[in-house]
What does this fold into?
Amino acid sequence: MRRSERSTVSCSALFVRSGGGGRRGFWSASLVLSLLVAGCYAPTLSKPRGPVHLDALAEAASHQHHGRLREAADAYLRAAEAAERRVDRDEALYRRSRALARLGLHPEAIAICDRLGASETIARRTLRARLDAARYRLLLGDTERAERDLHALIIAEPESAAGRAALRMLARTHVDGVDDKRQALAWVRGLRSEVEQSSLGEVLMSIEAALLIELDQKSEAKVVLERQIVRYPYPTGSRWDDALWQLADLSLEERAPAAAVAYLKQMIAVHERSFILGSYTRPRFSKAALRIARIYRDVLRDPQAAIDAYAALRSEFPRSLVVDDALAEQAELHLARGERRHGCKLLRELLETHEVGSARRHAETRVAAECQ
It folds into this structure.
């Protein structure tokens, strides 16, 4: 097997195991974008080499550990000068820039980052250096240059971690820091038109929908979310399940519970089918299944449909954290219909399989009252 073939096989196997990405809400604390595989190349981070270089690195690390940042910066410079390879030199210089920045010497840190970031060949620290240089310029008040560089980083490298971080930084100013949300909306739409073919386009569509909801333009928000789930489908769409959940929210607000159920069923349908490359069970899936059952129970007033939905949840997601809730709530429906034997069976199953939790405490009370 040739080397390129080995790389492809190992990378594909890794992608299957890892699940291909993650998801977190933009409005929580951070942007977590989809992990897209554009060519299958495994990282080749080799160890630094050269005795003088290694000694200087060790000295720098010791100084930094003890808070001697000036001495650490000087040692990193010696390590860079003694490096036998470009990758080792760049790493030492980058660490020196971080030490200088912590000392408040931002112009010196910027000079190093500009040097590292100027390379046309993207190396390990190239993009991070560009990002840090922009961040330090923001601290110095050079907002125009910093924002221009952040925008360029997003456009040039939208799938990179640095590009995602650049978007976070700009969003703090142009979305979170803007009182006029229509102005924020215009900025988001403008940037999305430039990166729509990348995974950042998905995040910007989520932000656009959130802004429309804040502006009470919920019908337009639904249109954006509908387009989002089509443009960025599962499993590559890292916010696909979030969009469906939000569409269910909007449908319930419109007093359209059947539509809400349809959106949630669309989410969990991908789990019921055989998995494809890069697919995995997301936390929203079992929660969506539980929400379907509750909509049937509380909004549509259809206890049999709710019972069937609870049973489907337990079958499809047997290790989910919401199984105990499903057991307790399905048992209550059976008891309410006079089906004491079935209800008590489910409560006892809950007690056998779950040692702690509010659902267990509820089951203990109900068993004592109904199942003796």
User: Anything to note?
Assistant: Residues 1-44 have pLDDT under 50 and may be disordered. The two ends are 67 Å apart (CA to CA). The first helix runs from residue 3 to 18.
